[in-house]
Design a protein that fits this description.
Number of helices: 17
Number of strands: 3
Helix content: 55-70%
Strand content: under 5%
Shape: globular
CATH class of the largest domain: Mainly Alpha
Order of helices and strands: HEEEHHHHHHHHHHHHHHHH
Radius of gyration: 24 Å
CATH architecture of the largest domain: Orthogonal Bundle
Length: 393
């Protein structure tokens, strides 16, 4: 090869960037929606501290902030709430799908199928105009709660609890799940937890949504993909496992030996450690506050508060690992009477706010997300003689 040819080849060869497995510590894009500070101590939602919003805002105010980028005026939140409340109603065809599912169907599979089918009923699903994207986002935020609650109820042989458009979104969502009117404290604790779960940067499910959005597929497809990613036990489901662990331990007195034994066997303690938070999960304090409030009048809540705080102390002594949000939402949901297998769908009911917001943001300055692979398999293999291509007659 001539010197000129060699130089030409060098100029046209692309310069690949080798990313670490799992894209750990790789920044793939910018976002104005949410992020964690470099020290891993706090999370920002649209410029505000996550804990401040969870303590002060309603679900509707927080969802509006996510979608539109600013806190709503009284008139804006009123109009937004009315749309959200109307859109919680789900077509009967969706309920008919649930009736055909086996009773053992995973609640996240129910939700995934319900959202996917919902997209087939929306004639404007492929309309990617800005106006329709916001309308679709509101539909998905509202209907995800109803699909999660009633899809579970129907497949478990219970009657669905139809949404009540006169009620706020979080309260009505909890009512549909537990089949009764929640107390004010339960409703507010649940609402606060939904705000805490609404978004978390480019986590696995949100990145999945953005990848699908980058292909210009519809929002229903993207959210269905997000649900599929969240279904995986390495992403969602930690609060379920944390609750099963708390039930297995049973009391504060048994906590130390249980945790030490698991650590000795090098087993993971659910609800501790986080890919992002190394010092403290700022969401924990808010969830713990509500558990303390419940403990004032509920002995069982007091038992779980003492147990959780004891495990927290042991884990910091032994591993310097902080508790994460899942460790405290688990007993909160359990005390409300929420079935444990519904904890991850509740996560999705909140995270759909972030997913739809990221979908819209991705399309604002879109480029298809298509990384390069490095093929390391065999080359030069030959088909056996009997499989060799034959000449046409």
């Amino acid at each position: 090869m001539s010197s000129l040819s060699s130089q030409l080849q060098k100029t046209v060869e692309p310069q690949y960037i080798r990313a670490p497995k799992g894209l750990q510590n790789v920044i793939v894009d910018q976002t104005r929606i949410s992020g964690v500070d470099p020290k891993g101590e706090t999370t920002i939602y649209r410029g505000y501290l996550i804990e401040d919003l969870a303590r002060a805002l309603t679900f509707e105010e927080a969802a509006f902030l996510f979608l539109y980028g600013h806190l709503p005026s009284e008139e804006e939140v009123k109009e937004f709430s009315q749309k959200l409340n109307r859109e919680r109603v789900v077509p009967e065809e969706v309920y008919e799908i649930f009736e055909k599912m086996p009773r053992t169907t995973h609640p996240m599979a129910i939700l995934r199928t319900g959202i996917s089918f919902l997209g087939t009923l929306d004639e404007k699903a492929d309309d990617l105009s800005k106006e329709n994207l916001y309308e679709t986002a509101i539909k998905l935020i509202a209907k995800t709660a109803t699909i999660a609650a009633n899809g579970y109820r129907i497949t478990r042989g219970m009657e669905p609890v139809k949404p009540d458009p006169s009620l706020p979104h979080a309260l009505d969502s909890l009512r549909m799940i537990i089949g009764r009117e929640p107390s004010k404290l339960e409703a507010r604790a649940f609402e606060s937890s939904l705000i805490l779960y609404m978004d978390h940067g480019f986590n696995a499910s949100t990145f999945t949504v953005r990848v699908i959005a980058s292909t210009l597929s519809d929002m229903y497809s993207a959210v269905t993909g997000g649900v599929g990613a969240l279904k995986g036990p390495l992403h969602g489901g930690a609060n379920e496992k944390a609750m099963y662990m708390l039930l297995e331990i049973g009391s504060k007195e048994k906590a130390r030996q249980y945790i030490l034994d698991k650590l000795a066997r090098k087993e993971k303690i659910m609800g501790f450690g986080h890919r992002v938070y190394k010092v403290k999960d700022p969401r924990v304090d808010v969830a713990k506050e509500y558990l303390r409030k419940m403990a004032k009048t509920n002995p069982e809540a007091q038992k779980y508060l003492e147990l959780c705080e004891e495990i927290e102390k042991i884990m910091w002594e032994q591993k310097k690992l902080p508790a994460n949000i899942d460790f405290y939402t688990a007993p909160l949901y359990y005390l409300m009477g929420i079935p444990i297998e519904m904890y991850t769908p509740i996560f999705a009911m909140a995270r759909v706010v972030g997913w739809t917001s990221h979908y819209i943001e991705q399309l604002e300055n879109n480029k298809i997300i298509r990384p390069k692979e490095e093929y390391v398999g065999p080359v030069g293999l030959k088909l056996p003689p009997e499989k060799q291509p034959k000449e046409d007659p």
